[in-house]
Amino acid sequence: MRILIANDKFKGSLPAEKVGFHIKNSLITVFPAAEFDLCPIADGGEGTALAMTTALAGDWASGPTLDAQGRPISAGYGWVAGASTAIMEMSAASGLAIVEDLELNPLTASTLGTGILIKIALEKGARRILIGIGGSATNDGGLGLALALGYTFKKAGQSFTPTLATLLEADAIEKPAALPSFELIVACDVDNPLLGPRGATRVYGPQKGVHDFPWFERRLEHLADLARRDLGVDPRDVPGAGAAGGLGFGLMAFLDGKLVNGFDMVSAQLGLEARVAAADLVVTGEGSLDEQSLQGKGPGGVARLARHLGKKVVGVAGAVDGSAALRAQFDLLIPIKPLTMPLPEAMRRTGELLESAVRAHAEPLRALS
Questions:
Q1: How wide is the angle at C-alpha 232 spanned by C-alphas 227 and 234, nearest 5°?
Q2: For the chain, what is the largest distance between any 2 Cα atoms, rounded to a whole number of angstroms?
Q3: Which residues have a Cβ under 8 Å from the Cβ of 157 and sit 6 or more positions away?
Q4: Distance (Å, rounded) from C-alpha 174 to C-alpha 229?
Q5: Following DSSP, what letter does each residue of 71-95 receive, concatenated?
């Protein structure tokens, strides 16, 4: 019997690879002769880089960069040497969580640090970069990214370095001559355009401190106009262009990035379909399984894939809502948190609770084999 364990993290408690270890440790007592395939997953959000790097047997590296407000930091990213592939998250450099100790200031928040991290990967020899763009602190349309990668802005024929405040003064933009050729795949799970009522500024700006919508809209529109005229690209209306404060636009316009669904990116890179096909039983899970888990989340994607391939699938989570839609996707659902246990205690004891809950479901698990 072959069992695939393809779980996401239990947020705030255990990373995906440790969750998988505990699930395997308990399943061994139920299926002592089974072969196991551990495949930590993610859906393009927080934890994606580490989960994918682990699953692809890569190394975890780090490099000096800047946070969204220009403070020096060290940001981690994955490196798969055999495939010349870097795996990163923009939130590691330009994320909102990193600058939560400061007052929100979207006028100075920049994606420069994300661009620096990409540049570090290219200098390391990356010919493929996978990047998740959730958790942004910025609303600069990728302006900082462009500057970090060597794009030149002009003002009356002279080079200058614009900020958001001075961007309207730029009258031309030039692509760097020495930018190496590489493939950029961007995990993006929103379909917002760059501008307008559903754009970056109006939809996501307020959580970053944006109040003067027209001020930001004028600057993002000007950046898009420059890219259209001088670079011959105009992805402002492409679904996802408005993600991460317009970084989706910037990655497409300046680096020819291809935006894909987060789970689809992870699934393709991990060869998940073939691994599900080779399994007799599939086990997945995350901190909480509910109907939202079926809307682009990793475990929902695993369950759909297992269903499509005719495999039995088990969901393990801290809490399970038991809705009909969720039950229809899983052959067995295993909640690990005792009803009377306070959540903080359960989160501290996640590994222990995982193992005891799975072992307690030994009979229904065996019935699936």
A1: 60
A2: 76
A3: none
A4: 11
A5: -EEEEEEEEEGGGTEEEEETHHHHB
CA gap 220, 243 in Å, rounded: 13
Instruction: Please list the residues that pair with 21 across neighbouring strands.
Output: none
- pTM exceeds 0.70 for this model: yes
Tokens 């839609």 locate to 325
Rounded percentage of the chain residues whose pLDDT exceeds 90? 85
- Give percent of the chain with pLDDT exceeding 70: 100
In the structure encoding, which two tokens stand for residue 51, read together?
């989960």
Q: Report residue 42 as tokens.
A: 């993610």
Give the pLDDT confidence of 188-238 residue by residue, as tens digits. Answer: 988 999 999 999 999 999 999 999 999 999 999 999 999 999 999 999 999
| pLDDT at 134 > cutoff 90 | no
CA dist., res. 88 & res. 74, Å (int): 13
At residue 363, the 3 state secondary structure works out as helix
Closest CA to 147 of 200, 102, 94, 105: 94
Which token pair is 26?
A: 């308990």
Amino acid 138 reads: T
Domains delineated in the chain: 2-40+280-368 (3.40.50.10350), 48-262 (3.90.1510.10)
Of 137, 90, 82, 151, nearest to 118 (Cα)?
A: 90
Token pair in block for residue 76:
């981690």
